[in-house]
Amino acid sequence: MEPAAAPPEPASPPPPTTVRRNPPRRARPPPTPLASAKPKPSSLSRFLQDEAAASIPAPLPSSSSPQEERLKVFLRIRPLPDRDRCKAVARPTPGKDPRRKPKQAGGGDVCLVPTGPNSVALTVPQSKLVDPKRGRTEVFDGFSAVFSPDSTQLDIFVQVMNPLVDDFLGGKSGLLVAMGPTGSGKTHTIFGSPRNPGILPLMLRQIFNAQDENKVASQPARSFSLSMFEILSEGKGERILDLLSDATECVLQQSSIKGLQEVPLVNLADAESLVSRGMLKRSTAATNANSKSSRSQCIITIRGIHKRSDADSEHLLSNAVLTIADLAGAERERKTGNQGSRLLESNFINNTSMVFGLCLRSLLEHQKNQKKPLEKHFKNSMLTRYLRDYLEGRKKMTLILNVKPADDDYLDTSFLLRQASPYMKIKYTSLEDSSDLVSQKRSNASLICQENKKKRKVQKPEVLGVEQKENIETDNIAKVSEEDDTQHKFLNSELRRVSRSEAIMTNFARALWTVLKQYKHKLVESENAAKSMKQLIRDQDIQIVELKKELEVLNSCCSCKNVPVTEDTSIDQDDSVSSGQAGRSFGSLSNKPNLGSYDASVDNFHLVAEEVSKELKSHGPENSSGESVSCDAPSISLIDEQELSSRGLKPEKSCCADAFGPKSHAEEGNTKVEVQAIHKKLDASECFTEQTSAHTGGVMPSSSHSDNQSDQSLTEHHMLPCLKTERVSLSPQFTSCSKKATIEQSEDETEESCKITVEDIHRDVSRREVKHPDYLSSSQRVSSDTEDVSSSQSSLEFPGMVAPQKKLEELDLEPERCEPGVVNATVECGIGHSQAPEQMSDCGVRVPCLLKEITCRAKASTAPSKVSEAEEAADKNKEGSASRPRDTKKTRRRLQPAAAMMLKEFTGADLDVDTKREERGKSPSSAASGRSDALVRLLKARPVRRA
Ligand SMILES: Nc1ncnc2c1ncn2[C@@H]1O[C@H](COP(=O)(O)OP(=O)(O)OP(=O)(O)O)[C@@H](O)[C@H]1O
Predict the structure, then answer these.
(1) Ligand 1 mean position to 189 CA, how many Å?
(2) pLDDT tens, 40-98?
(3) What ipTM does the predicted assembly reach?
(4) Binding-site residues from annotation for ATP
(5) Which residues form the pocket of ligand 1, taking CB atoms under 6 Å from any ligand atom?
(6) From the alpha carbon of 151, which atom of ligand 1 is closest?
(7) Where is this region: Disordered (predicted)?
(8) Distance between first and last Cα of the chain
C-alpha cells in the first residue's frame, strides 16, 4: 500500500530534520550453502522462494566478502492492528523523499517505515517532539532483510529460516532468536497459527519434505528429535520446564539440560502436534499490551541424526541441532500495567533480554578490539548459559527483530533498533564443525569434573591418592580447572609427606627391633648369670647348713666331753698344756732369726725328739709304732680307738668320716666318742710335743719341726696326720670360718685368757710343787736364776709375764740347771696360755694328756743336757733358720692367734725388719732393736754368761 501523495505546498515550512544514526543498508544476500551439503530444494521451499522473490525485493550485493560471514539480523514490522493500522507505512517508493513523514492509514501515524530492503526509517512521533516544528527521522540500515507489515509467514521463513534449515540438514547447527517488545509478533512469527503457520511449522514441513526426498533419492537416512522447554521465573530463581513432558523441571548443567526429553520425530503430523502440545503448556498471561503474552523464554531444539547407508549399525555422522528461541518481549511497566507476579515476570524478562544483549555486545566489542576480554555475561541467566556457544561466536545465530511501527511503540522500537542494529557487525570467523558434538563433549567433561569433585568430598584422601591419577587424566582431557590443580598439588604433597613419614617410621621400627634384640640377648645372659648365682648361693647355703650341723655336732660333742674331761684332767692337763704350750711357744719364738742361740737350739729338736721317742718306746709296746696317738696310750684313747677299730676304721679316717663328713650322720654317742678320739689325738700330739719340749728342757718348739728334718719327721708323722686329717675332712668354708672364729675369739679373749692361763700356771706350778718336786725345783731354779731376766722382761711391759715371773722368782729355783727351761717356761707362760683358746677352738675340748706325766718325768731327767745340746745346735743352725723366711711364715701361721698377738706384741714388726736386715748381711747386734732387741740380748746373754 503506497502512501497517498501529498499536494505540493510551496509555502509550507521545511520538513523536520531526521537524524539518521543508522544509514540505510542493503541486506546481505543469504549465504550460499555448500554444494555437497546443499539440499535439494523441496516444493515447499521452491514455493516459499518464489513467494519471497515475488514479495521481497532482490537482495543487494553485500559489501562484505563472501568468506566473512556475519550475524544476520532481520527486521519484521508487525502490521498495525486494524484500528491502528498505519496506512502510510509501506514499501518505500523510489523517487520519493524518505524523510517525509508517512501518514497512517485511517489517520494513524507510524514512526517506522521501511526505506529499503535492508533499512527502515524511524520517525519520532509528533507527540514526542520537543519542537513540533522540527521533525526527526532515524534510518536504520544494514539489516539482512526488512519485512514490512504486509509480509507473510512464508516470506519470513524463506528468507530467515530456510538458510538455517538448509545448514541444519547439511549438518550444521544454527540458532534463530526472535526478539522484540511484547506484542510485536514474535510468537506469531515463530509458531504462527494453524491458518498462518510460523517458522517452526514451516521448518518441520521442510525437514520432513527433505526426508521424503532423500528416501526417494536414496540419500543417507536421517532421524530427528524434538525437545521443547521454557525458562521462566516465579519470583526468585529461574526454572526450566520441559514442555514436551509432564511439566518436569530440568536442570541446566553448563550448556546441557538434564532431564530434558527429546522426542523423536516420526512424521510431520506428530511433530506438529508435539509442538502444539508444548505451546499449550507454555506460560502465558494477559497483559495490557498482549492478551496472550508469553511469560517465559521458549526454546525448541531439533536434533538430526544421520545414518550411514552402507552400514547396518547406526553411526553418528553429525549431531546438528537447530534451535529456535522465542524470547519474551520486553515490557514497560507503564504500558503493560503489570503488578505483582506479572511485574516480577517483567523484570525477569527484561533482565534476560538485557543479558542477552550484553553478551552480544561484549562479543562485538571483543571482535572489534581483541584486547577487550570477552565478558562472561552469559552466566547471569539460564538462557544465555544455554546459548553460550552462540553468544560467544562459535555457532551461527540469526536474529529476527519484531517491532511495532505505531507511534505509541516508538520507544520500544527505537530501543530495540538501537540495541540490535550493531549486532549486524558480529562476525563468525571460527565456526565449529559439528559444534554440537564439541559442546556435548565439553558438557560431558564438565559433568565428569563435577562428579569427581563430589567424589573427592566424600572419599578419603588416601583413596583419592590412588584414584587421583585417573581423575587427573580425565581432568586433563577436560581441561582441569585451577581448583582441581590446587587440590592435585595438595594431594601430591600429602602423598609425599605420608610416604616420607612411612619411611621414617619403618627405619625407626627396624632400629627399635635391633635394640630389642640386643636387650633380649643381654637379658638372657643376665638370666643365665642369675641362675648360676642362685645355684651357687644354693650350694653355699647347703654347705652352710651342713657346716652348721657339723658345728652343732661338734658343740654337742664338746659339751658332752668337756664335763668328764675337766673332771678327769684336773692337774695334769694344765701341766701338760702349760708345758706343751711353753715348749711350742718357745719353739715358735726360736724360729725367729733374731732370737739368737735359743733359736738355733731348736734345730736340734730332731735329736731331742729321738731321745724322747726312745723314752716313750720304753713305756709301752704301743709306743713302738712311733705314732703320737699310739704313744699316748691312755685308757680313754684306747677305748676310743677300740671303738673306732670296731668300726673298721682308722682313727684318723674315722675322725674324717664320722665326725666331719657331711654325709655321715651317725649316732650322737658314737660321734661324740669319735670326736673325743680326735681331740685326744690332737692333745696327744700336743702333749707329745710338750713331752719333747720337756725332754729338751723346755726348748722344744712346736714349730721347730719345720726347720729341720727331725722336726718334720716328728710332727708330720705324729701330729700332722691328725691335723691334716682334720683339714682334709673339714670343708674349706668350715676351716676358714673356724679360723676366723678362733682368731676373733682369741683376740677378744687374749688378755683375759692370758690372765687366766697365768693364774692357771701359777696354780699348776703350785700343784707341781706338791706332786713333782723335781719339776718345781727346776722351775724355782729358773725363776731364781732369771732375776736379771725378769727385770728385763718387766721392761718389756708384758702384762701376763709379770706376775708369773715374780712368782717364779719367789720360788727361788736353781738357775743353773734349769736356766733354759726357766726361760722357756717364762716365755711360755704368756704365750702358752694364749694358745689355750686356740686349742679349744680347734679341738673343741681340752683333752687330758696322760703323756704329761711321762713327759715331765723325762723332762726332769734329760732337760739340762738336752737343752744345752739344743742350744748349741740352735747356735749352729741359727743362720740357716734365719735364711728361711718361708719357714718363719709357716711357723707364724701355725702360731695360734693369741700367741701370735703376743708374739707380735713382743716382737712386732721389728722382727720382720731385723730379719730383713739380717738377710742383707748385717750384724745381728746392729739389727737388734726395740723389744725384740731386748729379747735377743736377753737370750744371747744366757749362753755367754753361762759360758
Ligand atoms: N504479522 C502479523 N500479522 C497478523 N497478526 C499479527 C502479526 N504479528 C502479530 N500479530 C498478532 O498480534 C498479537 C500479539 O502477537 P504475539 O503474541 O506474537 O506477540 P509477542 O511478541 O509474542 O508478545 P509477547 O512477547 O508478549 O508474547 C497476536 O494476537 C497476533 O495474532
Answers:
(1) 8
(2) 445 555 555 555 444 444 444 444 454 568 899 999 998 887 655 544 444 444 444 44
(3) 0.97
(4) 180-187
(5) 78-79, 180, 182-188, 290, 292-294, 328-329, 402
(6) 1
(7) 1-69, 84-110, 569-588, 691-714, 769-803, 858-947
(8) 196
